[in-house]
Amino acid sequence: MGGAESAQRRAGLLEAVGRRFDLDPHVAADGSVWITVEERRLGDLLGFLKSSGLVHCSAISVTDWPEDETFEVTYHLWSYEDAILLTVKSRIDRREATVDSAIPLWGESAAIHERELHELFGVTFRGNADLAPLFLEGWDGPPPFRKDFDWRAYVRDTFYEEGNPHERSYLE
Amino acid sequence: MSEATWNETMAKGSRAVDGFDLYFGPVHPGSGNFGVRLTVDGERVVGARSDPGYLHRGFEKLMEYRTPMQNAVLSDRLCILESLNWNLIHAEAVDQLCGTEIADRAKFIRVIMAEFSRIQSHIIWYGVLSKALGFDTGFKVAFGYRDYILDLFEFVTGGRVYPAGYICPGGVRRDFPEGTTKRIHALLVKLEQMVRDFEAYDNRTIAVRCQGVGALELEDALRLGATGPVLRACGLGADVRRDAAYEIYGDLDFEVPVREEGDAFARSIIRRREIEESIRIVRQAVDRLPSEALGPVKPRVAGKIPEGEVYVRNEIARGEAAIYMRSIGEDCPYRCKIRGPDLLHMIPVLEHLLVGAEVADVPAIYWSLNICPADMDR
Amino acid sequence: MALGVIPQLIRNLFSRPMTVAFPHEAIPIPEGYRGEHTYDVERCTSCTLCARICPNRAIEMVEAPEEKREAYPKTYPRIDLGKCCFCGLCQDVCPSGALSMTKGFFLSTNDRLTVFRSPFPSDEV
Questions:
Q1: Taking a C-beta distance cutoff of 8 angstroms, is the pair B362, B371 a contact?
Q2: Which residue of C has its CA nearest to B144?
Q3: Residue A71 near residue A81 (C-beta atoms within 8 A)
Q4: Cys bridge to B234: A24, B147, B262, B321, which one at CB 3.0-4.6 A?
Q5: Structural domains in chain A?
Q6: How confident is the model at residue B302 (pLDDT cuts 50, 70, 90)?
């Protein structure tokens, strides 16, 4: 797909999003689109984008903003047809940490990302029945990828020993 | 883990009604460090549940505490089987955030090394698939030829398997030493001989064991998140090097092999054709290599990454890789989400393909997906 | 019927084995190989850049032993090869060329304490 044609299709999509949702997407220098939306309308926007050709859910990620008491959930989407890379960002409350699952739209490819994020960040995805532990075994501490999890203290207390000369520099 | 939690984890999502539990991996020589719990009824698999996490090192968190040059060294280990490809995508993410202009010669060197890493990864795949199917000759031929590529890596980067962030933010850590292009030409001749050997030595084994096995429909592939050769075997010719060209791929002439059948054999043929296409890409890149000298990249102990966020996609040997990097203006990235193709291939796609297959076909399906536990677990 | 492996098998009858009789023979190691470190304390300026760049914190700045402290009053890098990943960032960042990597790779040992490379080698860890 040529650059000009792709840019045209992208402009068409952005115009449709702007009309329907009254949002202001930002187009970066490399052509990728970034849209921020509030949680209330996240499901509608994602549904509209899926039906507009963004059939590939590349990744779902969570960024922890403890000072703002929010999690930022990001959906990275790609359209094979139109060669558009689009990211949807949405902030959710950090204590509640619940958001609707994207399984009805992208199926298992969204489900597995949500399962991983549930384990590592503690975000619950409503509608995802399989949020079983994925990577960690026998872990009953707080979700480890959160910014307030003191992993240095955990590693020091669990694994390091005082008398080991190799670990002297870490224990100081 | 308590018995109750283990049972809960394993039972959820399993489509099994009743059957015998057979654990394929993780210490099984045919599975790498990853396990699949199969529920079998006689010779037929009726349920499959992946058990990842044996290689979980917490990369996304580790990268938040290291500067970009240190992360470049760490990025080798995202998947050591194609280390230079992961170096490249990490370097691109940091370069985009910092707005660094990369010298042309560095771009060509990056692509040459990344393509050799892709060829080397496909060679490993061919060798391990052959071993899993019992075709020992293929295994020996493959790993024998791989050594020549590792010798080139040692000559250029200083290490055979771990290039230590050779492709780093800012370009490449050091320029090609004198005599590299001659060595590359000699190596390409050997690799072309290898492609002929693959054709000549195997005329039955892989075809018979892989044809019709593990067939994936296109709409299932899209829903399950398959990318790379797994998706191209189902009929959709999507390749990030073609659709969203990065580095110099937009100027190079290469084909993207596509097949329709979606089975293990189609994936095998695609990967073998990709080795030939990669050889073609390296030939073009070496012929057009700019000649201005390149200085080494001097690592900086401290240096702020400008604020911003970027999502970079690359085509690595196994499929689509991506990094989402968010910086708030500090030395280290604030969030570094790594998307590897294998999280999708090893859990949704593998479970979907294994249900209904015969136990004897499990290695063929498993290895035809060319999975790497390292970039799934991170 | 395709000949398959037979031509290669016949060629193999007439070619020498590829085995290299290590350690009596060796394949030459290229320049730029990232092996064991070599450290020249006379060129070191104690800038501590190597300790700060190391991704694994394998380099610790230590003081000179008592008898050398007058001549060498600052701190000097001690490398824990057990933690070192041989990436060569310390070699690249060293401004005076005091720290660099050689082609040495015979590093296996049975004693964990011998993996430390002290800046003043004749002394204890």
A1: no
A2: C18
A3: no
A4: B262
A5: 3-132 (3.30.460.80), 141-172 (no CATH)
A6: confident
Measure CB to CB from residue B339 to each of A34, A59, A83 and give the nearest one. A59
One domain, residues B90 and B216: yes
- Pair (B227, B274) in one structural domain: yes
C42 exposure class (CB count in 10 Å sphere: 0-12, 13-18, 19+): exposed
Q: Burial, C28: exposed, middle or buried (Cβ in 10 Å; 0-12, 13-18, 19+)?
A: exposed
With CA atoms as reference, the chain B residue closest to A74 would be B324
How far off is chain A from C42, nearest CA to CA, in Å?
25
The alpha-carbon gap from C12 to the nearest alpha carbon of chain B, in Å, equals: 13
Contacting residues of B for A55, CB less than 8 Å apart: 222
Q: What digits encode the pLDDT tens for the residues B38-91?
A: 888 888 988 888 888 888 988 999 999 999 999 999 998 999 899 999 999 999
Tens-place pLDDT, residues B76-135: 899 989 999 999 999 999 999 998 899 999 999 999 999 999 999 999 999 999 888 888
Q: Is C75 on the interface with A (CB under 8 A)?
A: no
* CB-based contact A170 C57, cutoff 8 Å: yes
| Domain that includes residue B11, residue range | 3-51
pTM confidence score:
0.91
Q: In whole angstroms, give the CA distance from residue B121 to residue B81.
A: 6
- Contact criterion met (CB < 8 Å) for B174 and C32: yes
Domain count within chain B: 2
Summarised one tens digit per residue, pLDDT across range B317-347 is 999 999 999 999 888 999 999 999 999 999 9
Whether C55 and B298 lie within 8 Å, measured CB to CB: no
Percent of chain B with pLDDT over 70: 94
- Reading the block at residue B336, the tokens are 């570094």
B308-316 sheet: strands from edge to edge: B308-316, B319-327, B335-339
Shortest distance, CA A171 to any CA of chain C (angstroms): 12
C9 — contact with chain A (CB < 8 Å)?
Answer: no
Q: Are residues B328 and B195 in the same domain?
A: yes
